[in-house]
What does this fold into?
Amino acid sequence: PWPPATGLMTATAPINRQMRPVEWILLLTLSLVWAGSFLFNGIAVRELPVFTIVVGRVAIAAMILLLVLRWRGESLPRDPAVWRAFLVIGFLNNVLPFSLIVWGQGHISSGQASILNAMTPIFTVIMAHLLTRDEKMTPGRIAGILVGFAGVAVMLGAEIRAGSGITLAAQCALLGATICYAVAVVFGRRFRSLGVSPMMTATGQVTMASLILLPAWLLIDRPWSLPIPGPAAIMAVLAIASLSTAFAYALYFRVLSTAGATNASLVTMLIPPGAIIMGILVLDETVLQRHLVGLALIIAGLLVTDGRIRLPRRG
It folds into this structure.
């Protein structure tokens, strides 16, 4: 559910101001919508293969966003350089992470998946340090990264000790998705210089993601050979496309424009609780103590990384 990469979405900018009640409502709504993506994946993956779910998500979202652009009187750019960038961002921000997340959710709970997804800003700080010149590590960010990785270690440690291969592979797939998101965020900085608006970027990337995924869907899933899914799976795909992708992107950019990137980044910490509660209530999932400890450490790492919790200075 990470937002389309239109700039460095870590909290590297200073905190803008206190959010108004309406902005908190928008942010909480966004967190529930993105938390719902893990619930919808958990429902759809019971009946549908990975690429069918991901193609349904990006293709339906692309059609909705294209209609929104048309309603706003906007059109996608024609510059080939922009479409090459859409191709890259669509692969990094949609094709690969969505596929990894859906596959992973076939083997771990939606709550675990959402917790691991919260590592995205921490990996973004690492990638920004490695791939840019102006977003380098600071002692506070390093400390936050270490705390975040401690949370991941708490979550994965039991599976590593028990040699639980498929569960560990699924958790690593979720972490792989967060790395994809992190690279995509850093890559997405170029859209500002290309003069492409955030909504156009969101539309362009899901459009290209749909085109990338179509051949894989036809060759691997062979949709004509699949049994007709039940109403729950169909509704889950429609919901993840319309609510957790198209509507979420529009809502995210509204929050971003009024509250700023730093405040908008709070959504990362609000998603896991919602996803955990939905998984327990709807999918009858269980959450272990180590998962909650891991979540607490990851959130603490995020707070330290973005400066909301400041480390005491020596001397």
